[in-house]
Design brief:
Elements: H1 3-23, H2 39-44, H3 47-70, H4 75-95
Helix pairs in contact: 1-3, 3-4
Amino acid sequence: MDSDSLVRILVGIPLLISGVQLFRGKWLFLVAGYNTMSKEEQEKLNGKFLGKVVGIMLLLSCLIIATTLIYPEAERVCTILQFVIVFGVVIYVNVSDKRKAK
């Protein structure tokens, strides 16, 4: 096993664990800025929605990392796909009405 593969595995495992926990609605403190908000501001946001979206993004990132481990020649395509997913999630969360608490 080369060092590239080891780094990908060491990055992929925490992404997998964090993605599952965020998808379950736990570990919301990992979402940037959410933990530093006041309780009133947190109540204005739908934390479960944010957790699910960020959790799905992390799980997809983990899947992309696993793909590059299996198919190293697809690294460039996977990198582009990763950027598209991250930017897409950022845009989706910021324009979605679901992020506001009901």
